[in-house]
Amino acid sequence: MKYRGPGFHQRFHGNKLGLYVADDADRFEKYMAENGYGKPVDVWFKSIATILDLQFDLQGHWKE
User: Fold this and answer.
1) Contact, 8 vs 41, CB < 8 A?
2) Distance CA 24, CA 32 (A)
3) Which Pfam families does the UniProt entry name for this protein (predicted)?
């Protein structure tokens, strides 16, 4: 899972002040506000949980 790597950890935990500083910060902050997230790391955890909870099947219905 590439989302567990140190780059993603650093990105979603922010800089030394805890601020999200990636090039998509404006869009990301808007997404957080619209979806009720308080911290960037909450979005990261939700993304990982969604991937882990996805039920895969051999027929490919999980893509729907």
Assistant:
1) no
2) 12
3) DUF4238
